[in-house]
Amino acid sequence: MITIRHAEAQDFELVADFIRKLADYEKLAHEVRFDDATLHRHLFGARPAAEVLIGEVDGVASGFALYFQTFSTFEGKPGIWLEDLFVEPHARGAGLGRALLSRLAALVIERGGARLEWNVLDWNELGKGFYRSIGAAHVDGWERWRMQDDALEALANGV
User: Fold this and answer.
1) Which pTM value belongs to this model?
2) pLDDT at 18
3) Which of 88, 137, 144, 155 has a Cα-to-Cα distance from 57 of 20 to 30 A?
């Protein structure tokens, strides 16, 4: 049996563990550098920056989806950006990933939104196949850009 629930503050260690496991899977463990107190504040503080769904299989937490609200000026409506989706290897194939995405799609609709979007690593063919199977499509013509660390600091300081 699959259940999806919103994470609460007492789920913090579980969420942090899922983030680390996802980073391992994506070969990006070296990029995980969050401070527990800061992450906790941003997820469960007075003004959360993101939300988390916990997916359970037979009562055992086996995956998560971390997401936040976006806004499309062209649509004139909000949406949801799925930052991270992870399902434990033992639970893959049970329908948990689909259930998490289904709940996110329902949240987009419940909140009057227009889009559910996310990134996929270019080498993750298994993920891409799964996303295609549920009706998702690659967005042609767009590239992801990022500013962080020294470049972000320099721009913020007018350099």
Assistant:
1) 0.94
2) 98
3) 137
Neighbours of 54 (CB within 10 A): 20
Mean pLDDT by 10 residues, the chain (159 residues): 98 98 96 97 98 98 98 97 97 95 97 96 91 93 89 93
CA distances from 19 to 24, 112, 147 (A): 9, 29, 21
DSSP for 120-131 reads: --TT-HHHHHHH
| Exposure letters 16-38 (e unless 16+ CB within 10 A, then b) | bebbebbbeeeeeeeeeeeeeee
CB atoms within 10 A of CB 94: 18
Given the residues 131, 146, 147, 156, select the one marked as catalytic.
131
Measuring CA to CA, how many Å separate 14 from each of 39, 61, 62, 73, 75?
13, 8, 10, 35, 35
Residue 25 DSSP symbol: H
Residue from 21, 145, 37 nearest 85 by CA: 21
Helix (H) or strand (E) holding 103: helix 96-110
| pLDDT for residue 26 | 93
